[in-house]
Amino acid sequence: MARLITELGRLPGICEITAERLASHLLLVPRDQALGLARAIQEMREQLRRCSLCGGYAQEEPCPICRDPGRDPRRIVVVEEPRDQVALEEAGVCDGRYHVLGGRLAPLEGVESRDLTLELLARRVAALLAEGPELVELIIATNPNLEGDHTALAVATRLQGLPGHERLVMTRIATGLPSGSAIEYAHREVLVDAFRGRRPLEITSESAP
Amino acid sequence: MARLITELGRLPGICEITAERLASHLLLVPRDQALGLARAIQEMREQLRRCSLCGGYAQEEPCPICRDPGRDPRRIVVVEEPRDQVALEEAGVCDGRYHVLGGRLAPLEGVESRDLTLELLARRVAALLAEGPELVELIIATNPNLEGDHTALAVATRLQGLPGHERLVMTRIATGLPSGSAIEYAHREVLVDAFRGRRPLEITSESAP
Lengths: 209, 209
Fold this sequence. Notes:
The structure is a homodimer. Chain A is of the alpha/beta class. The first copy, chain A, has helices at 2-9, 16-28, 31-47, 64-67, 82-91, 118-131, 146-159, 188-196; strands spanning 49-50, 57-58, 72-79, 96-100, 136-140, 168-172, 199-200.
């Protein structure tokens, strides 16, 4: 029991009192329910592995997204974590494939570029560039904060010297005012982004009022 | 007393019960305090007027921003309401001048383009274009929502046929992920904007990690 409380207490956001409460809950519920949780943890760790192509987690190798022939293999969305990939997939914003870095550069926490799958990405992009004359697009979708911006630059810096890099288009997702919001309640940084990133307005006969 | 309650009840967000409470408060406070509020309302309405150049509210004519020689007169930020101008001024994002439309197109509420200062803007831009050979930039900073986008298009459509319009650059402030936010918590519309608006990543020796 003491060992279970220690193990539960290691989970993020679980203090010792909550760990004790969870442990006594697991003692009182039907045996099957407690073992079901244990088995789910075990199976998740045994069955999910990192895809050797994109670094994402999947049961299959390569992962279903890397194998999907309906996706453009020459457009790669670079994200920090699998959860970012999940969010973008749910929004359905991109027909390309992904590359999961496995984190972001955070010098203060000791996370350096060798802790990310940056070399895997460099090999993958180099192979795509060697494959044919078409453009390769890398959409860098690390989070729009200090560490994410820093990581985006590190990715771009690592890849800019690859052979054939003149056919490599590296873009960064847009920052600005979130759609549906109001200028009067926006933070200064958001307004600065919205002004810096302003774009020519296109008037089409379809969109005109 | 009944008339005061009726008048207070016309303010936005003030129900009848609150109006009654405010009225009895104004009856019980020292006479000077009650009359101070009355005078403040009166003076505000007497002293603030719309600037004949930009449509914003100011005590002086033209308003201090329109008179400020340090601002680029050929860059105009178009906003819906004076409060948007205040937010942008506080953020200090632009060295240009403003044009206050006095609202946004809202057909369901009966707000049409003749209720906005669109013709004043058209005359102002036409005069700037006639003045000299330099470019005129119009930054359309209506709110990033359905009505604001619709209003932005109406502004652009009205101005696109002016003489010299080939020297008129009309831009829209950027939408996307708000700076400092996380992809995993963003709404679908925000992610779609962030992807559609993606921009080439610039690597400068200064910004490289």
